[in-house]
């Protein structure tokens, strides 16, 4: 503020007069922080300002002090305030002078008036050790206030060693005593005016270059600066940062001098920074544009050179095509010269060959020549003719197109008509080899479209007619020999023929006898072709019943064995489902074990018996010998042979002693039932089936076989309402529970029957 400048000038004047180096003030008075007592004129509890000095300072700098209309108004207001302050100070000084004279007459009796008042100031001072005189520890405080003399008008501070203070010796003494002590900084210490001429000349200004500003902004990430218009006041303000929105009000609160001027300067600075950033951004954009244009220029140059090269190539190609057209008109053009010319063009100019669709032009030149070349050709008689010529033209005409390429057009117009005519007139479905040989020879050259057309329009109709007219009794050629070769090409399309083929086969199997091996020759190739369900249906209906009949009639005689029926059955082992084949073999093994038991009981030659066993074992094919059930039946016969060789009693197959799964309680029940039968007088050992039948009778349940029902080669029986199977070899009983077969005991059978009855109720 202007008053602070006056204090600063007074301070410098007093420092020069009193020769005090770098000291801003003396010792403070009572309860006050004084700054520069020698020049501020501060007494006990008073502070004074040199109004005359301020006025002279303002007058001195009036010539260049804010030479604007705003500055003149500001100057007038400051002078008016200074005059008011000057009058106030003069009144105070006059009253202070009169009081000092009264105090001087009272012989230094300071504070004597306290004796006649109720004040406690003197009492408080006495309690703190005050005995009169100056204040302070060493009584260094002044008694009389400092009298200031008015500086003449337009006189500078310190001019001609002019002294403003009158009573200065006491203060000077205190300053000398406290010269070396650090002085506290007073809040009233004058501040430096940033806008004065003297400050501008003394301080070194700090400038920021445009490069440093851009680097700083880039680090801060302020690439985009927006303007904000503050319209809250009477005038519109332009801001570049919301932090400065209330900067003017904050400056006024902090008593910052001239906040409006500082705000305007700050705004000009922000706008300048904004312009610098905008110019830098535009410069960078222009540089990027230059780089982009340079790249486009290079690209255009490359395109121009490439197009010029293509133009030269196309001119050369046009020349060759015109020459070939002239040769075609004069009938001097051949397939070899045509293929050589277009092959050379394709090799030298591959891109232009595709871009100009030269394959279509080549096809148009080649079609008339191919018609003459293929005239009179029979593809079924000479399928390998013309393969080399067509393979050369496939590379020239195929291109990237597969279904609608010029090569496909050439094949369908030249090769396919010859195949269609020859297949329709001479080819027979029962002799597939000629057509299959042609398709195999032309496999790599035939388009997919042509192949499907031949199969759908030529092969399938003739096969359909042949299957419909096929009679398995009169024809000597098996149907699979002329149908199965088409499986790789036709696949599922042949499924439409299978119902007809099955019906024709079933019609002749009714009168078939197992001794006729031709049925196996006709049926066995169809097992991998028919679905498993259809194949098993044919076997169960027509093959298995007749094989069962043969096995029931089969006689086992070690002395004179006839094996032909056994061979008839084993022939079908590879095509009949395994569970059906196990049922047939169980009939054989039952007879085989019975004969072995009788032979062992007659004290035979064990070497002869062993050879007989090995002979039967070797007759069983690998499809059956690898089955666990078949091996178990063979091991059972081997155990009987071992028992006889060791001199033990050979156990007859099917006795109750071999039931290993029964528990002790069930065994006792079984023995009791057997003893009851023995008491009747039969004296015959019971099989597992007979024991179960007896157990059913004791519980008043019906036990009978179910005709036509087999499970894993075993007959299915009805135990009341429960379906069971009996494994006589392993002495086990299985019952059907919830679509699966479970091992059960005799007691569990009765429980299952009772639970079934309860559920039905």
TrEMBL record:
Source organism, top-level taxon? Eukaryota
* The protein's name in its UniProt record: Uncharacterized protein
In its UniProt entry, the species of origin is given as Smallanthus sonchifolius
